[in-house]
Amino acid sequence: FEFLGILFIPAFAILFIADITKTNVQIGIKALLMAISGALWIVFLTDPVHHWIYQSIKLLPLNGFGVAYSTKACGYYFILAYYAAVLLFSMIAFPKAWRKSKTVSSKKSYRFLFITFQLPWFVLLFVASGSDIYFDPTPAVIFLVLSLIGINELKNDFFELEISRWKNTFINMDEMT
Asked: What secondary structure letter does DSSP report for 34?
């Protein structure tokens, strides 16, 4: 069950981006995303038997420490392609929402999110090239991206709250008593 999150993150990320950008996602697409994630999870569960994700995993001694070394199979690269689909969707959805937005703060927010969602491309290329033998940057980038999204949401919510308070306080300013 530890890989359940890894395989459902792309589906939820696409739905999250669609919700933020107010992009309509049809129920069939949502079902397809969940079906792909579910199928990949079954592939992960059956990997010890079929070796679709990892062909082999070995523990290599390195300076007295054991380092896991894996030979990846086609299923592993399909998961990377699924993550690349999320990044491609973000590259389409955020600029589209940026063009449609009317306020400066929402334009800044969409630009910030667009830039934030470009950071994982480096990790995706790093992992796809096989450079992740001794170091996996994925957890650090996930933490960074989620932190940046949180900062963006916090900043925007506070800004929207201030605008709402200002409107409620000064809405009838011309009617002084």
From this structure: H
